[in-house]
Amino acid sequence: EKTPVALLGLGAMGTALARAWLAAGHPLTVWNRSAARAEPLAAEGAVVAATAAEAVAVGRLVVVCLLDDASVEEALAGVDLTGRDLVNLVTSTPGQARDRAAWAEARGARYLDGGIMAVPPMIGVPAAGAYVFYSGSAELFEEHRETLAAPAGVRYVGADAGHAALHDVALLSAMYGMFAGVAHAFALVRGEDVKPGDLAPLLGSWLTAMAGSVERTAAQLESGDYATGVVSNLGMQVAGKEALLRTAGEQRVSVELLSPYFRLMEHRLALGSGAEDLTGVVDLLRR
Ligand code: NDP
Question: What is the pLDDT of residues 73-102, one digit of tens each?
Fold first, then answer.
């Protein structure tokens, strides 16, 4: 017998989750604010609830995949959550997740927060490598681990309900740093006799090779010694950035994405850390 799932929210992500649970054979009850979005799923075997309260009343496991934290508040206002296991997959901040956990617990529910590391087409496709960070009630997670694993992989990151969002946002933030660098790189060759399509595989393999540096950064942060195993010291890198800035000038490319990082490197160097790695920048960011 597969665990019944009640799912609130049938946007792009909610619909993908719904199909994965149906495909895995879970009895599924769905609710969406605009009823039309539930129709295709009804034809595929889902039971459609007329209200959020009706969906929540069906069984223990309730999964929420609405737009944002405010929509969770709105959809569940006045709904009886006593004895429910609430899994909130809405993208939020760690603070919002902690508040939502306290809110759910005050209403008699166990709470698990999730951060989805995937786009909808990756859901229910094991080879796509999608997974969800979970944090909050360990009991809830263990009890429903198999059900939660049907749409995507699962990674439990602790009892603090805010930690799923924290991991989610940490990964996304690093990703945007990478996107910024990639945008600058393409801008540099734009208008030259260099095809973006020829640069792309070079960028991809270079970024993959450089990604290995995160392990060294982590080891240095954990030991507190930022000068161990340094391959490119800060003094050299601060001197070397001049070539990057001057190239941008020659190519008429704005340095607005690179400059903030270089400023932090210079600041750290001015503190006398020339023999270290770039790890000290982490400490400069903490306020
Ligand atoms: P969509 O914009 O496709 O769907 C939003 C859903 O929220 C709809 O079901 C909508 O209902 C509902 N909704 C919005 N406001 C309210 C409200 N006030 N009361 C009730 N229901 C409301 O979003 P997604 O499905 O793409 O995303 C859902 C969550 O998943 C978000 O938190 C998102 O950050 C997260 N996520 C999405 C990813 C993606 O790539 N799509 C990736 C990772 C996480 P209605 O149909 O009535 O408008």
Answer: 999 999 999 999 999 999 999 999 999 999
Cβ of 88 less than 6 Å from ligand 1: no
Distance separating the N- and C-terminal Cα atoms of the chain: 51
Is 90 exposed, middle or buried (CB count within 10 Å of its CB: 0-12, 13-18, 19+)? Answer: buried
Distance 74 CA to ligand 1 centre (A): 13
pLDDT per residue as tens digits for the range 211-235: 999 999 999 999 999 998 888 899 9
Q: CA-CA distances (angstroms) from residue 193 to 196, 199, 252?
A: 10, 11, 15
The distance of Cα 103 from the centroid of its chain, to the nearest Å, equals 23
> Looking at ligand 1, which atom is closest to the CA of residue 68?
32
53 lines ligand 1 (CB under 6 A): no
Nearest Cα residue to atom 37 of ligand 1: 13
Domains of the chain: 5-159 (3.40.50.720), 166-285 (1.10.1040.10)
Q: What is the pLDDT of residue 230?
A: 85
Q: Whose CA is nearest to atom 39 of ligand 1?
A: 119
Least confident of 42-51, 192-201, 225-234: 225-234
Query: What residue ranges in 137-280 does DSSP mark as E strands?
Result: 153-156
The residue to mutate among 10, 31, 67, having the most atoms of ligand 1 within 8 angstroms of its beta carbon, is 67
Helix axes 163-189, 234-250, angle to 10 degrees: 50
Q: Over the stretch 5-38, which tens digit does the pLDDT of each residue have?
A: 999 999 999 999 999 999 999 999 999 999 999 9
Q: How many CB atoms lie within 10 A of CB 114?
A: 28
